[in-house]
Amino acid sequence: MTDDSVLLGTRGEAAYLTLNRPRALNALNHAMVARIDAALTRWERDPAVRTVVLAGAGERGLCAGGDIRAIHDDARAGGGASTAFWRDEYRLNARIARYPKPYVALMDGIVMGGGVGLSAHGGVRIATERSRIAMPETGIGFLPDVGGTYLLARAPGQLGTHLALTGTAVGAGDAVLCGLADHFVPSGQLPELADRLACEPVEEALHRHAADVPDAPLREHREWIDHAYAADSVPEIVERLLASGEPAAKETAETLLAKSPTSLKVTLTALRLAREVPTLEDALRLEYRAARALLRTPDLVEGIRAQVVDKDRRPRWSPRTLEEVTEEFVARCFAPLGAGELTFP
User: Fold this and answer.
1) Which of 67, 74, 108, 137 is catalytic?
2) How far is CA 264 from CA 137, 158, 237, 271, 314, in A?
3) Is 89 tagged catalytic?
4) What is this structure's pTM?
């Protein structure tokens, strides 16, 4: 049976990757990761290919993330398939960041989780008025991975910490402000832009289609965001949000208190560690350690159940409170894995 989950093609001087599971919002699975990686290998060695273009099939978005239903089922069964998937996915994320040819990601519509990993590490990242870009993992008992901690740790001030802990989706203006995208092109112009990339260098094609980046709403909230998220711990962040007097900050505190307490503490630590490491690969190693640890916690299965399987939106977190998540547990999530450590070819 032919695998058409990723459509591959070349036209002129461009190669095209199209994620093709529109009914699943192009959710990424292990076979798709392998297919993309093999195509990038081929095109890297092909002198006729000057540019690689990533897009998503359907009208809803580029990619909603990894196939978390499969992760849910695998976690209940023991977790071996998920760790193998993450290993290859994270290696692909690093490869995209280092790809020697222009890699153009059309970040139209929903771009979340693993979709961010496929796009936001690219050399040319294009958002549209339809873009909704997020790392929503704290809502399912996980952490921002696929290099998300590396990207968000380098956003201005504490904006990345805000996005990582809350899982807030941002539009084009905030995506550019936070370093998740580079350019704005109206969605209706993407087909023509993709066509032009077959015969024009990226810079020329963008010059024809790029428009002014929209306003970034997060910019006006920088004062309370930077103050609150500079705190040393998640409980103190919540306290500062509640004490700020800003209605948006109070709403944010309530959002945080609905997330997995375990995920919040692990994510904050991951961000702080990612801020100190020199390379994306270093951050991916840390994320891989934490991902493996969280796979063994009850919150990942429970979070996916509540959000995706049963859709009751009422997860029962364990531990239930931030105070019950110990610093010792968080530290163990980042302990070296020895022979199981993530390596890069």
Assistant:
1) 137
2) 10, 15, 11, 11, 17
3) no
4) 0.97
